[in-house]
Structure formats: C-alpha cells, structure tokens
Amino acid sequence: MLDKYPAEHIIIRPPVEAYSVLIAVTGGCSWNQCKFCGTYKGMYGATQDYAIRDLKDVLKDIDRAAENNYHGFPV
C-alpha cells in the first residue's frame, strides 16, 4: 500500500509538532547509500536521488502559509 504514495507525502512526527508548518526545501536523501533503504532511489530521474528547491519557491511557500494564518499560529 505504501508504494502508491511518494515518500514526501508520508509524514511522521511527534504530536507536539502536529500544527507546525512544514515547508520542503529539499527532496529525497542526500546520503542515499543505505543498503536497506530504496525509498528515494531514482526519485528525480534515473541518476538523481536528491533535489534542492529554488529559494524563490520556498519563500513563496512561507508567504502563502503566513497569509493563510496556518492553523491560527503565526508563521
């Protein structure tokens, strides 16, 4: 069942962080050498397993979260 969902959509975090803002600045795994994990292999193409988002896109996400008053908490 989990293979139907991209890894970035599976979020596991402590309940105390339930309402914190999550803004992705990278995707995949920068290490990506663990023998037991194939989660990010080829995620961004045959040879790319890690990607860094453009700063302007990250800043847009921060502004959007602030404008929408994310869960009533300041951003």
TrEMBL record:
This chain's source organism reads: marine sediment metagenome
- InterPro entries named among the record's database cross-references: rSAM_sf
Q: What is this protein called?
A: Radical SAM core domain-containing protein
Q: PROSITE patterns given for it?
A: PROKAR_LIPOPROTEIN
